[in-house]
Write a structure and sequence with these properties.
Largest sheet: 8 strands, antiparallel, barrel
Strand content: over 45%
Number of helices: 1
Order of helices and strands: EEEEEEEEEEEEEEEEEEEEEEEEEEEHE
Helix content: under 10%
Strand order of the largest sheet: 21-22-23-24-25-26-27-28
Structural class: mainly beta
Distance between the termini: 131 Å
Radius of gyration: 52 Å
Shape: rod-shaped
CATH architecture of the largest domain: Beta Barrel
Number of strands: 28
């Protein structure tokens, strides 16, 4: 005990109170070096006495524990990214910073325990790093690692090749559109969408290819100006950018000049004696699938002897299309003498034909033809008309 007597401070040890009544005191505690020192001061006198010393176990400060979850780990441009810090413990506030893979800061966001989630999106592909921290009520900052990352998918790059540019004489012929050279920087191309448009921009045909090679073979049945547009998709479902060079405008023209060959049977004059004929010629398409000009030459051999003889034919015709499979021939021809006693001369020609096939670059048909002489003194209709049935091949 410390007390003062006649102006001097004295110290006594092991002092005990011997009074019959409890002594009212004041108590105070001081902590030093992990010990609590409890002092009492008797109320009547004000002396100070050390009552007891107690060992104190110091608890370490409770730090916040940061928890950060970013989903999905990989996404496409402008997909929503969820940042979740709801698993953080002992925190009064949290915040996250977002960086590019090169270390440039993109944005920051502050959280509270009542609002621990945030959604954002990125308009550029690449890797993004999220670094978070938590702060408790005493201002202590979390020390555990608290970082996550997400990858924004790079869209595929489209590359288009076509088997003809310009596509001259390609009506009826297959044209190949090839997107197999397309690439994806962080995945693979899994499908390609092809669209063909006419000169007004209307889609007239389309095709989706889900297997390599990404190609489309198309046949155009009409001449004109067309555009092919291709979009490729990667394994994340991202399409190629519309700025990629995957749109080609091209002109498809129709073949205008053809050769033709004809063979068949012929009946001559009123007795209808039999012949075998053959002809070769050329055809110019003045208006495709509407009107053609034909020039042909050939001859006929009799199936019996005198007085019948082989003769020559030369014709100039207009070929008129009545539809995709039917046509008429009309024109003027020259026919040689089928007998020595007869005269050669001009014939009016009419024919009706039906296409067996038409691939636009070649076609085959059967036809029936009538040759009526231009009436003269030496050539009458009864003795000089002819009937023909044959097969025509255009190539």
């Amino acid at each position: 005990m410390l007390f003062r007597v006649q102006g001097k401070v004295k110290v006594w040890q092991d002092v005990e109170w011997a009074g019959k009544q409890p002594l009212p005191v004041f108590s105070l505690t001081a902590r030093k070096d992990n010990k609590d020192y409890e002092f009492i001061i008797p109320k009547p006198c004000g002396n100070i006495a050390l009552y007891r010393v107690t060992e104190v176990r110091i608890q370490p400060p409770v730090l916040p524990l940061c928890n950060l979850v970013v989903t999905p780990a990989k996404a496409n441009v402008n997909d929503l990214i969820t940042i979740d810090m709801s698993g953080t413990q002992n925190a009064a506030s949290m915040d996250v910073e977002v960086f590019t893979a090169q270390g440039a800061r993109v944005t920051t966001h502050a959280f509270t325990p009542a609002s621990p989630r945030w959604q954002t999106k990125f308009d550029k592909p690449g890797e993004y790093v999220f670094r978070a921290k938590a702060v408790n009520a005493e201002g202590k900052v979390s020390e555990n690692p608290c970082q996550a990352r997400t990858i924004i998918n790079f869209p595929p790059i489209c590359k288009l090749w076509t088997s003809c540019l310009p596509c001259e004489d390609y009506v009826g012929k297959p044209i190949v559109f090839d997107a197999n050279g397309s690439t994806d920087a962080d995945g693979q191309v899994v499908k390609a969408s092809f669209e063909v448009m006419d000169e007004t921009g209307k889609v007239i045909d389309s095709f989706m290819d889900t297997e390599k090679p990404f190609t489309w073979e198309k046949i155009f049945t009409k001449a004109g100006t067309y555009a092919i547009n291709v979009v490729v998709f990667d394994d994340m479902g991202a399409p190629s950018a519309s700025t990629d060079p995957c749109r080609i405008t091209f002109e498809v023209t129709q073949k205008r000049f053809f050769f033709l060959a004809e063979v068949g049977g012929l009946l001559a004059r009123g007795t209808y004696s039999g012949y075998i004929f053959g002809r070769l010629g050329m055809m110019w398409s003045l208006s495709p699938d509407v009107l053609d000009l034909i020039l042909r030459f050939g001859g006929a051999l009799p199936t019996q002897g005198d007085p019948w003889k082989a003769f020559f034919m030369a014709d100039f015709l207009m070929n008129i299309h009545l539809g995709p499979a039917v046509y008429l021939d009309a024109g003027l021809g020259y026919t040689g003498r089928e007998q020595t006693v007869r005269k050669s001369g001009l014939d009016l020609i009419g024919a009706f034909g039906v296409n067996l096939f038409n691939n636009y670059s070649n076609a085959g048909s059967i036809f029936a033809e009538v040759r009526l002489p231009v009436i003269t003194k030496d050539r009458d209709s009864a003795n000089h008309h002819k009937l023909l049935l044959g097969f025509r091949y255009i190539f």
